[in-house]
Amino acid sequence: MTVLKPATRPARPQFSSGPCVKRPGWKLDALADAFIGRSHRAKDGLAKLAEVIDLSRAVLGVPDTHRIAIVPGSDTGAVEMALWTLLGERGVDCLAWETFGGNWVTDVDSVLKLAGARVVKAPFGSLPDLSTVDWSHDVVFTWNGTTSGVRVPDGDWIPDDRAGLSICDATSAAFAMELPWDKLDVTTWSWQKVLGGEAAHGMIVLGPRAVERLQRHTPSWPVPKVFRLMNKGKLSEDLFAGNTINTPSMLCVEDQIDALRWAQSIGGLPALMARSRASCAALERWVAATDWVDFLAERTDTRSSTSVCLKIVDPWFSALPLAEGWAFIQRMCALLEQEGAAFDIAAYRDAPPGLRIWCGATVDAADVEALTPWLDWAWATVKQASA
């Protein structure tokens, strides 16, 4: 069946899951006040870094009992910092149902080689049985699986009387989903996800139980400088006032300030969540009316509203060998890029062949709505040429 090429393209066809599209209306002059050519430890440089921390706290509603720091290495660096400095006192449950959760399994199991480590796994599209988690252990998990489109439904599965720490990689959830701070002892994210910031900088939030662990427990292994949260046996309090471990990009800092001020200007976290949900809802309406595609997430209550992952359910496609399925997806995406209709929407390389469309807070729902006819057109065009 021939599908006519749509007449209208998305105004902003950037649907990458990271780095993600900038906020609406962003221009380079948003960086005009960047504190460049000076030490980031000068008074005004530190004030910029502290503003990122303060605005992040205000937008996310992080309680004053929790400390926030800017750290190197994006979200990966922030998670690694938590693993290398906090683990080792007790057993660890590491949850993995997508690529990055799998990365933390590698760190815990193969790099740190922690005795008593336990892996709780599920395939792409599913969530592990959260009732099997052992909370006498520390627990490492992603809130939202960026490469699988599967998220935890809420924080109810995390007990208040847990003995271990909850260590949460929230990089594709922060600023788009409600995070229960009383349930999260360590939370991390990166700038380039929901707020569309620039890469290489991460954030870490430490609750009181994580701080108490740091002050009581010293790892048995050497901790690299970029991961150190302690100095001479004491918590590095300067770090939580913006005095970063290594030199940050002050252009990126200015960009993050701009994104956070925008978030405040539109109504804060509720408005950010509503924007993300509106874009996801546009895809939900299209999927409900389309017979060749479905969500990779098996359950509605665990479906991501940011990194929306789609699988191809057409029987003809399902019969293709894996390599041919991926080749088909690449041809679809190349055609959409050629038309300027969508960029960077192929599924992550470890996931089943399919599509991944970012619906974070900086995306406009109107652009997602404009995208869906193009997906139908690209599917029909490539299938007709392949069959």
What does this entry look like structurally?
The structure is a single chain. The protein is α/β, with parallel strands linked by helices. It folds into 2 domains: 28-264, Aspartate Aminotransferase, domain 2; 268-386, Alpha-Beta Complex (Aspartate Aminotransferase, domain 1). The protein is built from 9 helices and 14 strands. It has helices at 43-60, 74-86, 99-111, 208-216, 250-265, 268-288, 315-318, 322-338, 365-386, and strands spanning 67-72, 92-96, 117-121, 138-142, 144-145, 150-151, 166-169, 186-190, 201-206, 230-231, 234-235, 293-295, 307-312, 354-358. A 7-stranded mixed beta sheet has the order 1-9-8-7-4-2-3, with helices on both faces.
What's a quick, concise take on this entry?
This protein is an alpha/beta fold and 387 residues long.
Order of helices and strands: HEHEHEEEEEEEHEEHHEEHHEH
How would you sum up the global shape? globular
Structural class: alpha/beta
Give the name of the CATH architecture of the largest domain: 3-Layer(aba) Sandwich
Quickly name the level 1 CATH class of the largest domain: Alpha Beta
Uncertain segments: none
- Give the amount of beta strand, in percent: 5-15%
Q: How many domains, as an integer?
A: 2
Overall mean pLDDT score?
96
Strand order of the largest sheet: 1-9-8-7-4-2-3
CATH superfamily of the largest domain: Type I PLP-dependent aspartate aminotransferase-like (Major domain)
- Helical residues, percent: 25-40%
